[in-house]
């Protein structure tokens, strides 16, 4: 089980980086420079409640900075990627705090499923980006 956790945690930064590299227009408007999004760090040095607060803050910032272009399909996808990453970050936090096998399995499932969905959304954005050119 530790190998599965390590594998899930190892790919999270790659997925998160790709999620923010899709477009260049953000909620702040065309004149606002894109802000560097905060990152979530799962660490046993913080209590669980602080990790959950961090995960929520990162997710909220990511959703607010999501590149929007007025197309509902596009805007939905760009906002859902940080939302899904927030679920992954929360699952990482609980894995540091629980030994309950049901919660650990649930968290690992959330990580795996949400990562797949993030990849699907990234692929959708890439496909529709190329279709516009």
From TrEMBL:
Transmembrane segments: none
Keyword match Heme: no
Keyword Signal part of the UniProt annotation: yes
Pfam families in the cross-refs: DUF305
Domain of life: Bacteria
Limits of the DUF305 domain: 73-132
Signal peptide limits: 1-21
Keywords: Signal
Alphabetized InterPro entries for the sequence: DUF305_CopM-like, Ferritin-like
Annotated spans, Disordered: 23-42
Name of the protein: DUF305 domain-containing protein
Lineage summary: Bacteria, Pseudomonadati, Pseudomonadota, Betaproteobacteria, Burkholderiales
């Amino acid at each position: 089980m530790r190998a599965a956790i390590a594998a899930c945690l190892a790919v999270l930064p790659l997925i998160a980086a790709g999620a923010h590299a899709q477009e260049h227009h953000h909620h702040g408007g065309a004149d606002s420079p894109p802000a560097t999004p905060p990152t979530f760090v799962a660490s046993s040095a913080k209590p669980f409640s602080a990790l959950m607060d961090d995960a929520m803050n990162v997710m909220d910032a990511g959703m607010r900075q999501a590149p929007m272009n007025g197309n509902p399909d596009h805007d939905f996808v760009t906002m859902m990627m940080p939302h899904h990453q927030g679920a992954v970050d929360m699952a990482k936090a609980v894995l540091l705090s629980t030994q309950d096998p049901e919660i650990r399995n649930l968290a690992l499932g959330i990580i795996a499923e949400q990562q797949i969905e993030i990849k699907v959304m990234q692929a959708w954005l890439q496909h529709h980006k190329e279709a516009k050119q």
